[in-house]
Amino acid sequence: MTKGVFIDKTKCMYCGGCTAVCPVNALELKETYIEWDPEKCIYCGACERFCPAGAIKVVRE
Amino acid sequence: MRQWLQEEYDVIVVGAGPAGSTAARECAKRGLKTLVLEKRQEVGVPKRCGEGLGEGWCRIAGITPDPKWARYEMHGAVLWSPSGKKVVIPTPTKGWIIERRVFDKWLAEKAVMAGARMITKARVIGVIKEEDTVKGVIVETPDGDFEVMAKIVIAADGVDSKTAKYAGLNTVNPATEIDSGYQYEMVGLKIPEPTDMIHLYFGWDVAPRGYVWIFPKGPDHANVGIGIGGHIDKGTAKEYLDRFIESHPEIFENAGIVEVNAGGIPVGAPLKKPYANGLLVIGDAAHMVNPIHGGGIGTGMEAGILAAEIAEKAVRSGNVSEDVLKEFAEKWYEKRGNQLLQVLKVRKFFEDLTDQDMEKLADILDDKQLLLDFADGRRTAAFLKFLAKAPRIALKAAKHLK
Ligand SMILES: Cc1cc2nc3c(=O)[nH]c(=O)nc-3n(C[C@H](O)[C@H](O)[C@H](O)COP(=O)(O)OP(=O)(O)OC[C@H]3O[C@@H](n4cnc5c(N)ncnc54)[C@H](O)[C@@H]3O)c2cc1C
To answer: What pTM did the predictor assign?
Structure first.
C-alpha cells in the first residue's frame, strides 16, 4: 500500500471524531465524507486509534 | 438566502446544535441581529448522542419538556459491575431519553421564532480577522461562498469544531481526553428491570475507560451504546459494543437495529480560554461536557444562555475585545466549569480502578446518593471517608482527589 490515510467508506460513520483528535487539523468532516489533507498530516495515527468504527488506516510508507 | 448572507450581523452563531440554537434564541430575544449557519442538510440529523437529559437542565435552559421530544421518563440508574452485580440507584429527580432529531429542530424553531435567521447546508470554512479580532466568517453554501460580517462570532460547532481553530485557539482533544463512541438504536430488546432507569455496564473487558449504556426510549426500545478511551488500541468502540451485544442474548436475541451512530465525546478539561477578540466558544467545541458521563446537551445550552448575555454586553458597549469577553469564562467557570474540573478528577480516579475494585465498590456501597453526589463533583470528603472500608481504593482516591 502507498503512504497515506485511507478511510473505508463502508465503515465510516461521518461522526467527525477523528477531526477532533487530529493535532494538525488535517481532517475535515464534510457530512458525506472525511477530507484528508496530505500536506498537513504528520501520520501520528491518533485518528486511526480513535475511530469508533475502525474505518481509518494510516500507512506511513 | 443570498440576501441574508450579504447583510451584517451583531452575532453569527456557527452550528445549530443545542448550544448554538440556545445561544441564538437568547441573542435574538435580547434584540441582537443574529444569523445561525449550520453545515448539515438537516438540523439534528444524524444524532451523535445517547439522548439522556435530566429535568434540571431543562429548567436551566429555560425550556419546558415537550412530549414531542421527551420520549421516555427515567427515574434513576442501574450500575452493573463486571461480574454482573446490580446496583440500583433511584434518583429523586427525573430525566428523559429524548428524541434528538426532534429536540434539535424544536430548539432551532425557538431560535427562529425569537427572531434569529438560520440556514442549513452552510459550512463555515474560515474566519475573517482584522488586527487580531474576528470580524466575521467565510461560509460555503449552495449559492456560493460569502464573507459575512458580525460583531461577534459564537462558535457552537461541536466536537469537530473548526471555527475556533481558524481563529487561532487550540481546541484539539488529546486522545486520552476524548471518548470514542458507537451506538445502535434497537427495538424489540428485553431491557433489564427496571426499564425506567438507564443501565450502565462497567469493566475493562466490557468498555475500557468507559461504559456500555442502555438508555430506554420505551419498554422495548433503547439506545445501546458504548464509550471507550480514544487512545485504546485493543479494539474499536464498535468491536467492544458488538461483543457486549453478542454476550447478552437474554437482552438482544430478538432485537433489531433501526439506527447506528458514532461520535467523539470530549471528556477532558474545558477550554481554559473559550474566547478571543470577537469570538466566544461554547458547547462541545469548548469541551463543555461532563467528563464522567459525557453528557453535553445541558451544559451546552447553559453556556449558550451565558454567551448571549455577554455577547449583548459586548455588542452594546461597542467593545468585543477579550477584556470584555473574558467575563464569559469567569462566569462560566464559576457557574459550571469549576465543578466539571472536579468531576474530571473523579473520572481519573474511576479509570484507575481495576475490575476487582469495581466489584468491591458494588459490595460495600450503601449510601447511593453519596455516589451520585461524588460523581457530580460534590461531597468528596464524605466519599473519601466512606472509602475507609476499602483501603486499596482509598489510596487511589487520595492520589486523584487531593
Ligand atoms: C455516542 C454519544 C452519546 C452521547 N450521549 C449523550 C447523552 O446521553 N446525553 C447528553 O447530554 N450528551 C450526550 N452526548 C454528548 C452530546 O451529544 C453533545 O455534548 C451535544 O450534542 C453538544 O451540543 P453542541 O451544540 O455543543 O454540539 P453539536 O450538537 O455537535 O452541534 C454542533 C453543530 O455544528 C455544526 N457544525 C460543525 N462544523 C460546522 C461548520 N464549519 N459550519 C457550520 N456548522 C458546523 C454541526 O453540523 C452540528 O450540527 C453524547 C455524544 C456521543 C458522541
So the answer is: 0.97
Domain B74-92+175-266: which topology?
A: D-Amino Acid Oxidase; Chain A, domain 2 (3.30.9)
Closest ligand 1 atom, residue B264 Cα? 53
Q: Is A46 on the interface with B (CB under 8 A)?
A: yes
Q: Tell me whether B268 touches chain A (CB under 8 Å).
A: no
Give the confidence band of B1 by pLDDT, cuts at 50, 70, 90.
confident
Question: Could you tell me the distance, in angstroms and rounded to a whole number, from the CA of residue B143 to the centre of ligand 1?
Answer: 26
**pLDDT at position A31, please?**
79
Residue B288 Cβ inside 6 Å of ligand 1? The answer reads no
Span B366-387, pLDDT tens digits: 999 999 999 999 999 999 999 9
Using a CB–CB cutoff of 8 Å, tell me whether B173 touches chain A: yes
Question: What is the B288 CA–ligand 1 centroid distance (Å)?
Answer: 11
The CATH fold assigned to B3-47+101-172+268-343 is FAD/NAD(P)-binding domain (3.50.50)
Domain segments of chain B as ranges = 3-47+101-172+268-343, 74-92+175-266, 345-401
∠ CA B6-B10-B11, rounded to 5°:
90
The residue extents of the domains of chain A are 4-59
Give the tens place of pLDDT for each residue, A26-61: 999 987 899 999 999 999 999 999 999 999 999 998
Owner of C-alpha cell 441564538? B24
Q: Which residue of A has its CA nearest to B181?
A: A52
Q: Among partner residues B162, B175, B261, which is closest to A50 by beta-carbon distance?
A: B175
Q: Which residues of B119-157 are buried (b: 16+ CB within 10 A; e: fewer)?
A: bbbbbbebbbbeeebbbbbebbbeeeebebebbbbbbbb
Cα separation of B122 and B135, whole Å?
18
Of B162, B165, B231, the CB nearest to A49: B231
In this prediction, residues B173-186 reach a mean pLDDT of 97
Backbone angles phi, psi at B116, to 5 degrees: -80, 150
Summarised one tens digit per residue, pLDDT across range B277-310 is 999 999 999 999 999 999 999 999 999 999 999 9
Nearest CA to ligand 1 atom 19: B296
Name residues 20-39 of chain A within 8 A of B (Cβ). 20-23, 25, 28-31
Q: What's the mean per-residue pLDDT of chain B?
A: 97
Q: Which CATH architecture has domain A4-59?
A: 2-Layer Sandwich (3.30)
| Cα distance between residue A14 and residue A50, in whole Å | 13
ipTM: 0.95
Kindly report the protein residue whose alpha carbon is nearest to atom 26 of ligand 1.
B283
Respond yes or no on whether the N-terminal peptide bond of residue A38 is cis (omega within 30° of 0): no
Q: Is the CB of B158 under 6 A from ligand 1?
A: yes
CA angle A26, A30, A36 (to 5 degrees): 25
